[in-house]
Design a protein that fits this description.
Blueprint (H helix, E strand, L loop, with lengths): L3 E5 L4 H11 L10 E5 L10 H17 L6 E4 L7 H7 L4 E3 H12 L3 E5 L4 H12 L5 E6 L10 H17 L5 E4 L8 H8 L3 E2 L1 H15 L1
Parallel strand pairs: 1-2, 1-3, 3-4, 5-6, 5-7, 7-8
């Protein structure tokens, strides 16, 4: 069976390693191999609208190049850069982690809250929520104030995530949370245990959908 290609559009290998660890439990001996790849030409983190725009063509190039050797693609950035464009050039299913995470969250709760990295990410996320028609199910989006490369500071990152998660739950009314960056993957289990409501890791959500699609192909 052809592999599912999970694309990290930034050049931070630690993010790719976190994605690889997040989906490891989804790998099955008789199923599709999960191939996590890094776009070495990408920025250290997809943190601005310019970063999102710059990622589109390299993602499409990779999707074109791997058409005959993948059963599905996952775009591993919460802004879903190039998702529409990649779907247009691909005969193979393409999944975005943000869209997949929101769909998964709405299957687990009534209103989802998003934990973002930076305040500047939030308007972009909110535009996407409206574009998908999910604004009635969104409780809010709050940032921890750390960039992608700063997420490696585990104690600081987890403390900030816990603070923001509590605000989304207690003040905004979220009954399910979404990690708004692939670089947060390692913190999902601990956060869910401490905060007491479901926490969706987007790469896991998208890969689960990709696995289903590959089985039906």
């Amino acid at each position: 069976m052809l592999p599912i290609v999970i694309i990290n559009p930034n050049s931070t290998e630690a993010v790719t390693e976190g994605m690889r660890a997040a989906v490891a439990s989804l790998s099955q001996p008789t199923g599709s191999r999960l191939d996590c790849v890094t776009l070495a030409s990408g920025p250290p983190g997809i943190e601005t609208d310019a970063h999102v725009a710059d990622a589109v063509e390299p993602i499409c190039d990779l999707v074109r190049a791997r058409q005959g050797s993948a059963s599905a693609f996952v775009i591993g950035c919460y802004s879903d850069p190039g998702l529409r464009e990649a779907r247009r050039v691909s005969l193979t299913p393409v999944f975005g982690i943000a869209e997949s995470a929101m769909l998964s969250a709405m299957a687990r709760g009534n209103r989802f809250g998003v934990i973002s990295i930076l305040d500047q990410s939030i308007p972009r996320h909110e535009r996407y929520v409206k574009e998908l028609g999910f604004e009635g199910r969104s409780a809010g989006d709050r940032a921890i104030g750390l960039g992608v490369t700063e997420l490696a500071d585990e104690e600081r990152t987890f403390d900030r995530m816990l603070e923001v998660a509590a605000l989304l739950r207690d003040e905004d009314g979220a009954d399910v949370l979404i990690l708004g960056c692939a670089g947060m993957a390692r913190y999902r289990g601990g956060l869910e245990e401490r905060i007491g409501i479901p926490v969706i890791e987007p790469t896991q959500a998208a890969t689960t959908l990709a696995l289903g699609a590959s089985l039906l192909a």
